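Why should sequence recovery work at all? Because a backbone constrains its sequence more than one might expect. Tight turns favour small or flexible residues, buried strands favour hydrophobic ones, and helices have their own preferences. The token representation captures these environments compactly. In the example below, the structure is given first.
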């Protein structure tokens, strides 16, 4: 099992931050999640501890009181050495529908021009990859999805929009993602997903977790309208399958 040179830093009175090498890499992400599981179930299993994994870091937060940074830092160094390769992590691959109709993909033509591809090629390439959820943030439920093909890398817009509609699917740099609610944003919008990504009334407001994978599939405008209604009345079921990281 590969070990990485971790750095532990204070993160306020009640938290600290464990950092791995600064790169977008699945092996690092799953090492973070393995360590997260080891801490959660074997070391810091009091429910007052909270963990926030993302990209190349793990925030460890105590909800109730200040922590003894030096003591916890030494413990974390030892606990990191104790984590086990055998502790597999159960995750899901989620298949989400996207409508790439011009009504929803306001930047699709521009993206195709920038990438020197046809619109059909952009759609096909966007749907051909299983993206990894490297982080959830910016907005509640906004999944930063890594794994975009190099040939699809697109710079952010020079001037962000003041309003990007909920469900919009965008590209920026090496990532793709779905806006879970209306928001300003500078990503290139190429389509729209009719399925809510975040629901604060659910026990798990965002169905996906860091380490899960997302795959998109194209749908027509008619299917979009149908799936939107199905989602609103609670009968749409997201296609998913389990896998072990």
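From this structural description, the recovered sequence reads:
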């Amino acid at each position: 099992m590969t070990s990485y040179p971790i750095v532990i830093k204070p993160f306020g009175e009640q938290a600290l931050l464990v950092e791995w090498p600064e790169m977008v890499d699945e092996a690092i992400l799953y090492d973070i999640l393995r360590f997260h599981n080891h801490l959660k179930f074997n070391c810091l299993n009091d429910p007052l501890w909270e963990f926030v994994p993302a990209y190349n870091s793990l925030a460890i937060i105590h909800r109730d009181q200040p922590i003894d940074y030096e003591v916890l830092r030494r413990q974390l160094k030892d606990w990191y050495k104790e984590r086990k390769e055998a502790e597999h992590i159960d995750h899901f691959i989620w298949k989400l529908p996207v409508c790439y109709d011009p009504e929803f993909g306001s930047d699709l033509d521009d993206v195709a021009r920038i990438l020197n591809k046809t619109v059909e090629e952009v759609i096909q390439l966007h749907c051909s990859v299983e993206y990894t959820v490297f982080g959830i943030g910016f907005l509640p439920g906004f999944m930063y999805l890594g794994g975009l093909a190099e040939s699809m890398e697109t710079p952010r817009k020079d001037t962000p929009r003041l309003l990007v509609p909920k469900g919009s699917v965008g590209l920026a740099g090496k990532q793709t993602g779905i806006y879970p609610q209306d928001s300003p944003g500078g990503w290139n919008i190429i389509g729209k997903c009719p399925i809510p990504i975040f629901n604060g009334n659910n026990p798990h407001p965002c169905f996906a977790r860091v380490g899960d994978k997302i795959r998109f599939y194209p749908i027509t405008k008619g299917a979009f309208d149908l799936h939107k209604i199905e989602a609103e009345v609670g009968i749409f079921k997201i296609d998913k399958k389990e896998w072990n990281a």
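A few observations help interpret the result. The chain has a mean pLDDT of 93.
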